[in-house]
């Protein structure tokens, strides 16, 4: 049971990886995982935090991997962006089944499926208490969904990016491969870049650094963590100046 506390952030952008949606499946969206994530998000609705989401597409298609195997990089990246649209619709559906009002805005125009990304409209939706899911990455090849998260967070004036991962935070080396890996409680953008810590790609981190937008890297698979992070509990790793 998580104690009732107040949120320390007014507006957050939650970045989810596509892989997180895999669950036990080898590809696609595991409905159980989508439900878990939606329940976690529902658990913060009473905090009145304006929330938007960017989700990756790696559970369906990995652009970089396909291009390393010979596919044209631009085509591969567009396929990855389409994968994020599928994931965004899956999350929208899971959230709306729980009575949470949402809007999906897509960087690539597909008006039958989603609204186009319009910064002012996104902010209006947030002000009305809707969760806005930004689909389609940045709409450009050669950019990751982490960079899309940084860009959108900047555009909508988010207080923080909450980067969900399957480990507890940022470590000095891969904690899955090395049991002696040490987690940082705080780390600077520059250290993330110079130590090549792979929190997010360099473009995304640099964008956050240039605009002084902090990031919390935390384990989303632990129930209650998103609420803890939003209420300012010291979980995960805080990336800042
Ligand atoms: P407010 O009027 O500001 O409260 O926002 P709203 O989103 O409720 O109003 P709007 O009339 O823009 O949208 C009504 C519904 O249509 C919402 O579910 C939107 O997500 C959806 N919608 C709006 N524009 C588009 C679009 O270009 N494509 C698609 N597929 N849906 C859209």
Structural overview:
- This protein has 241 residues and is an alpha/beta fold.
- The protein has one domain: Carbamate kinase.
- Helices cover 35% and strands 19% of the residues.
- It is built from 8 helices and 11 strands.
- The strands form 2 sheets. A 9-stranded mixed sheet has the order 4-3-5-2-1-6-10-11-9, sandwiched between helices.
- β1, α1 (31-42) and β2 (50-55) form a beta-alpha-beta unit.
- α1 (31-42) packs across α3 and α5 packs parallel to α7 (202-210).
- It is globular, with a radius of gyration of 17 Å.
- The model has no long low-confidence stretch (mean pLDDT 95).
- Bound molecules: guanosine-5'-triphosphate.
Which class of secondary structure composition applies to the elements?
Answer: alpha/beta
Q: What is the CATH-assigned architecture?
A: 3-Layer(aba) Sandwich
Number of DSSP strand runs: 11
Question: Which cofactors or ions or other ligands sit in this model?
Answer: guanosine-5'-triphosphate
In CATH, the homologous superfamily goes by the name Acetylglutamate kinase-like
And the CATH topology? Carbamate kinase
Helical proportion? 25-40%
Count of separate structural domains: 1
Helical stretch tally: 8
**Which sheet architecture does the biggest sheet show?**
9 strands, mixed
């Amino acid at each position: 049971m998580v104690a009732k506390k107040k949120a320390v952030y007014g507006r957050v952008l939650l970045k989810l990886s596509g892989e997180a949606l895999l669950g036990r499946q080898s590809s696609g969206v595991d409905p159980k995982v989508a439900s878990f994530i939606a329940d976690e998000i529902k658990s913060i609705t009473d905090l009145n935090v304006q929330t938007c989401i960017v989700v990756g597409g790696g559970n369906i298609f990995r652009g970089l991997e396909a291009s390393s195997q010979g596919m044209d990089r631009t085509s591969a990246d567009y396929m990855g962006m389409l994968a994020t649209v599928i994931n965004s619709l899956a999350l929208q559906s899971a959230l709306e089944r729980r009575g949470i009002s949402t809007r999906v805005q897509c960087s690539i125009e597909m008006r039958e499926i989603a609204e186009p990304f319009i910064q002012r409209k996104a902010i209006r939706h947030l002000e009305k208490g809707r969760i806005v899911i930004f689909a389609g990455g940045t709409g450009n090849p050669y950019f990751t969904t982490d960079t899309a998260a940084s860009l959108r967070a900047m555009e909508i004036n988010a207080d923080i990016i909450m980067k969900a991962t399957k480990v507890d935070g940022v470590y000095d080396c891969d904690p899955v491969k090395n049991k002696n890996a040490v987690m940082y409680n705080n780390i600077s953008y520059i250290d993330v870049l110079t130590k090549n810590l792979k929190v997010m790609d360099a473009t995304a981190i640099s964008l956050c650094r240039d605009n002084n937008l902090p990031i919390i890297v935390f384990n989303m698979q632990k129930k209650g963590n998103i609420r803890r992070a939003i209420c300012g509990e010291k979980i995960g790793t805080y990336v800042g100046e």
